[in-house]
Amino acid sequence: RGKALQPLFKMSYSCSKVGDPRPGHPYKGGNFCAFLPETVEGVKIAKLLKKAFECGLTFQIKSCNGEERVTWGPIPHKTSWDGGKARNGYPDAQYLHEVGTVL
After folding, report:
1. Where are the beta strands (DSSP E) in the chain?
2. Tens of pLDDT along 49-83?
3. What are phi and psi of 102, to 5 degrees?
């Protein structure tokens, strides 16, 4: 598998904002981990993902059973080294190109 970059996002409890399911209500956070290869392109994508996170584009808040939760947003992330594309994992030869296009 080689070396891998592992961006870790930790979202704790907070209040939702305008445009979220219930603005001003608290939501439950969580730990989110994604994997990128430690290659020139992987490092480039990591920088773009950091910018997306800083702009509030990485996560979204969804209402589930009356509770607001943080979930992954529209930017695809690889959350496993295994399982292939169908399970948000590797191998997926097109992932870096596809996420780069989205970013």
Report:
1. 4-5, 8-11, 14-15, 26-27, 30-33, 36-37, 59-64, 67-72
2. 989 988 888 888 777 777 777 888 899 999 888 89
3. -65, -45
DSSP assignment of 53-78: HHTT-SEEEEEETTEEEEEE-SS---
Q: How far is it, in rounded angstroms, from Cα 59 to Cα 65?
A: 19
53 or 21, higher pLDDT: 53
Q: Which CATH class is domain 8-102?
A: alpha beta
* Domain extents in the chain: 8-102
Give the model's confidence band at 44: pLDDT under 50 very low, under 70 low, under 90 confident, else very high.
very high
Tell me the two tokens of residue 31: 């730990």
* 44-75 exposure pattern, b = at least 16 Cβ within 10 A, e = fewer: ebbeebeebeeeeebbebeeeeeebbbebeeb
pTM (two decimals): 0.74
